[in-house]
Write a structure and sequence with these properties.
The protein is of the alpha/beta class and 310 residues long. It is 39% helix and 18% strand. It has 14 helices and twelve strands. The strands form three sheets. The protein has an eight-stranded mixed sheet, with helices on both faces. The protein has a two-stranded antiparallel sheet with strand order 7-8. A two-stranded antiparallel ribbon has the order 10-11. Strand 2, helix 2 and strand 3 form a beta-alpha-beta unit. Helix 1 runs antiparallel to helix 11 and helix 5 packs across helix 8. The longest helix has 14 residues. Bound molecules: beta-D-ribofuranose and calcium ion. The site of beta-D-ribofuranose has 15 residues, from helix 1, helix 7 and helix 13.
Length: 310
């Protein structure tokens, strides 16, 4: 059977790291490339972490450097969740991978050109690289099979009252991507905050014993107190793994077609995802909004996938 082809754009980031490990664990997935963008931590860290993760997830996929800042304004970071190095101080094994000299936006286009309508782009960070790629290569949105995005929130944000981190970090880029003709699948906080793994499930993951399972359990386990205090969740919320599992196992999720856009001007709401999914549904649909998950099946799929590592 032909494998499902993926290209991952990310800003690792503890949950980006967990998502990349899931892609590496899926025997049906082939990752053609990983690109790094500034986001959770400054770009030098997201690029270094993407390289380490390509090796650690046993993908050894080429890693491409992208944008070190958003289209407008200064980088927004989230060290309070991800730590100074993006992995809450955890380190990954030494490796020999170096960044490919091709810019991220050209590498994504080359992957899509080589496999027309076969490549799913999974975007786990601010959408700067994707927006640059879409504006440089006008046929790229429809050359891709689909674009799965972790970003936005239809209720409240997590970095401002109105906005989720990835969309807040580069609202112009997010709006450009949402206006594109790509087959867009958006995984906002609505679904990702329901995609948590309990302490008991993290312990089961740790007991699998592989370095990758133990790292996933440790790096996500560190944030359990943050999620309990701030969200009342008994476990670790897995934003980027939620989007990655939607790409790998869509049957675990509930989604609906709707219209969506991103606020770029608001006094209080810059970076907000605006959608008619839960209001009047009056516009022509432009995207698929993923809004719920079978949480026990989600956690079980993670435990099952991660057994691929020895
Ligand atoms: C998103 O923001 C980042 O902090 C996470 O990696 C995730 O992509 C959640 O809002
Ligand atoms: Ca991320």
């Amino acid at each position: 059977m032909d494998k499902n082809l993926f290209f991952i754009d990310c800003d690792p980031g503890i949950d980006d790291a967990a998502a990349i490990l899931l892609a590496g664990a899926d025997p049906d997935a082939e990752v053609l490339g990983i690109s790094a963008v500034a986001g959770n931590v400054p770009f030098r860290h997201t690029l270094a972490n993407a390289l380490s993760l390509s090796a650690f997830a046993e993908l050894n996929a080429p890693v491409y450097a992208g944008a070190d800042r958003p289209l407008r304004g200064e980088p927004l970071t989230a060290e309070f969740v991800h730590g100074a190095n993006g992995l809450r101080g955890h380190t990954l094994p030494e490796h020999s991978l170096t960044a490919d000299p091709t810019p991220a936006w050209d590498a994504l286009y080359a992957a899509a050109k080589a496999h027309p309508h076969k490549v799913t782009l999974v975007a786990l960070g601010p959408l700067t690289n994707v927006a640059i790629a879409f504006s440089k290569w006008r046929d790229l949105p429809t050359l891709l099979k689909k674009v799965v995005i972790m970003g936005g929130a239809t209720h409240t944000g997590n970095i401002t009252p109105a906005a989720e981190f990835n969309f807040a970090a580069d609202p112009e880029a997010a709006e450009m991507v949402l206006r594109s003709s790509a087959d867009l699948h958006i995984c906002p906080l609505d679904v990702t905050e329901r995609s948590y793994i309990s302490k008991e499930e993290l312990a089961q993951l740790d007991s699998q014993g592989s370095p990758q399972a133990r790292f996933f359990a440790a790096v996500m386990g560190d944030s359990v107190d943050h999620y309990k205090d701030d969200y009342g969740v008994e476990g670790a919320i897995l934003h980027d793994p939620s989007a990655m599992l939607y790409a790998l196992r869509p049957a675990l999720f509930t989604a609906k077609r709707c219209w969506g856009a991103v606020e770029t001007e608001g006094v209080y709401s810059r970076g907000r995802l605006v959608t008619d999914a839960f209001s009047d549904a009056s516009e022509n649909p432009t995207c698929t909004l993923v809004y719920d998950v079978d949480r026990p099946a989600f956690a079980a799929a993670i435990l099952e996938l991660m057994q691929a590592y020895q």
